[in-house]
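Sequence in, structure out. Go.
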Amino acid sequence: MTSSTSLPPLSLMQLQVQAHVAHLQLSQPDTLNSMSPVFWRDLDAALTHISTHGDVRALVLSSTGRHFSAGMALETFANPDFAPQDQSPEGRAALSEFLWDMQQVFTRIEQLRIPVIMAIQGGCVGGALDMVCCACIRYATQDAFFCVQEINIGMVADLGSLQRLPKLLPMGLVKELAYTGRRWPAQAALQHGFVNAVFDTQEAMLAAAMQTAQEIAAKPPIAIWGSKQALDFARDHSVQDSLRQMGWLQAGIWSNRHVMESVQATQQKRSSTFPPLMPQRAFGQMQS
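Output:
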């Protein structure tokens, strides 16, 4: 059963919400799920819907067809509205802001209030790698591979993989991938902890991703939110700063009721019941 909340109309992907789990699936296998301007609009709309409704507690992002995504659609680079105006400092400055806008769509994945699980099959190339770096958990199939494709077409990867991969992998490996543009297979990614598990089939991978999402959705949403806040802060700060932040965070969200509900549900061998996160609203959307 899909959530009764109206879902946004999407062209290149499909969004379903069931039992507090959102499933966003890229649905253009004939084009290798490449990233055209419509892709960015769809992704932004889907993330907006998910972030503004408190009933979603975990997001699974998967794909269809042989490959997860071939990255940026090559025809996009030939579009005169996209091509960087590199003949003037004003044009190059505009490119900086243009890239910032694109980067922020992927950053929204990282900053969602809920965990995001990526299910990756086949090629995860270029911009797709930038996107999956924003996930909390990554599952892959045996045939999956990752590639910093940008260097192979004469440019620097610019949507986040060079900034996020050093937080996830040894720097020497990151440099090797960034400088050579080699395909990095799923088993190697598993050995270095970039993916959590590797599966024989896409069906088994997606089933595991949904199972993990359902386990997350059974926990108190506010505690999951707090855990994500603490982990992301610790990634970018010292241990002492992170411990201090943890004190402020716990003081703000502690709930005796949630703890007692968790304990009693375990003792009574039943599902726990927790309130959803409050729906997010932008200040400009409030009624004056």
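Check: The first strand starts at residue 13 and ends at 18. Residues 89-111 form the longest helix (23 residues).
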